[in-house]
Amino acid sequence: MRKRLLIVGGGTAGWLTAGYLAKRLSTDLPGGAAITLVESPEIGILGVGEGTFPTIRRTLKTIGISEVDLVRKCGASFKQGAKFAHWRFTPGAPGPDHYTHPFQLAQADNGLDLLPYWLLGHGGEANWDEVCSPQKKAADAHRAPKLPSHPDYVAPLNYAFHFDAVALAGLLRDKAVENGVTHLMDRVTQVHVGEDGAIAGVDTEANGRLDADLYIDCTGFRAELIGKALGQPYRSRRDVLFCDSALAIQVPYRDEREPIVSYTLATAQEAGWMWDIGLDRRRGIGHVFSSAHTDDTRAEELLRAYVGDVGGDQEVRKIRFEAGYRETNWHKNCVAIGLSSGFFEPLEATGIVFSEVAAGLVANLFPWGGDHETSARQFNANMLQRYERARDFIKLHYCISERRDSEFWRDNVAASSIPDSLHDLLDRWRFRPPTEIDIDTNVDIFTEASWQYVLYGMGWKTDLSARAGAYRYVEDARRAFAEVERQAAFAIANLPSNRQLIDYARTRS
Ligand code: FAD
């Protein structure tokens, strides 16, 4: 008999999982698993989550979505990383007011690792993000990561997308159904748990009882299956990441030819930060903040001041969340994916990528022979480590700041709010920079390049003086830095603007 999989929830997590697993588990073939997705029309989806990670390209390609469809149907634009303003110093203080975390890895010329040379001062005055790859300068000039002639998901500069989250869920749904997923618009009213502690079936309003071999909980913060029915606890990490609220607004461009910024802009505030994401026809802006350090009124006042008159009297949407994760996200025959599994503030766009990772793990660990326990153990261990490493990476943006202008920033640098694992990493990097030996690609979403961009963008000091003599290829390094500069100038001269590439995709036949 075919294995049956029931996904409850049709937000980004549900439909991404459905579309992806339909391909990986061959839903459309007789030997494949049968996938049904049930979503409640009344509850609706969260519908925020506009910034992604470069892994999304492979995921969308597997599902069978084209870049043209992304641009036309989801208002997509090309994202080349994140730009952080006012994270290191209070606005107005002397010193650099921003740094970037581009997706492009640092260039290595003939295997020469450039970072130690930059740390020793051979890269000049410029920041690390500027000297190690051409991407920062190209993105600052609003260049796209590729030419119109490059195939889908292929480019000289690494990239992801910004898109309209509600439209994306719709596109993912259409593809998943095309890939063989059965779609039910219905509400799950009860989850039955058998004597063995596994889910025995779910009741729905219109379709009666549904049962499956594997249940996937994509019900968002409600966590109807993994949390409410199976009682798997949610571990709050607000002790580390204080933000628990967001106010979101969508605003038009002042002028329809205004450049589309190729980064997610993240501007630090007195008790949090604001995101600013440029799509093809509008911007999505949000204020993420800690309710323990400010209130909604002040947060909205700052958001409206940031947005200016283009915000008009547009309504602001309020969202509450709790930074954290479940330590057990696969229990018996139920797996949680998406917000039901865990969530951190969207500072580094870790929401959707966790759904991508989880869907990939389920495809690889799918219990064809019925052995849920072995798969669950591996899944839970892997996801937990991923959550903990991502938590540390996000905390890094706060805990090495030199800002002390509010309680929020003072609390963020308190040693007690920094996990031991992060203290340990920072200790390592006082006398050597992060390298691949600090990274485990099986659990780390962020590579050593990401850690380097944030550390050195924030002015972290790694003292290489004791080993300076080991770096003898100074002239080669200087040549490599000059080559990056040449490549940046070439990219700026030859790549289309972000808006031109989007317009091209819109009009391509
Ligand atoms: P939801 O969108 O909430 O979907 C839940 C689904 O479950 C819905 O279809 C609902 O109808 C259904 N459901 C619930 N109960 C039942 C029931 N009883 N019966 C049937 N159906 C039911 N991620 C990023 O990657 N990048 C970002 O920039 C980003 N920004 C974010 C900003 C904010 C402020 C927040 C809060 C999150 C952000 N995220 C971001 C995370 C991202 O929004 C989520 O990862 C993504 O939306 C997935 O949500 P979901 O599908 O798990 O839940």
TrEMBL record:
<dbReference type="InterPro" id="IPR050816">
    <property type="entry name" value="Flavin-dep_Halogenase_NPB"/>
</dbReference>
<dbReference type="InterPro" id="IPR036188">
    <property type="entry name" value="FAD/NAD-bd_sf"/>
</dbReference>
<dbReference type="InterPro" id="IPR033856">
    <property type="entry name" value="Trp_halogen"/>
</dbReference>
<protein>
    <submittedName>
        <fullName>Tryptophan halogenase family protein</fullName>
    </submittedName>
</protein>
<dbReference type="InterPro" id="IPR006905">
    <property type="entry name" value="Flavin_halogenase"/>
</dbReference>
<dbReference type="Pfam" id="PF04820">
    <property type="entry name" value="Trp_halogenase"/>
</dbReference>
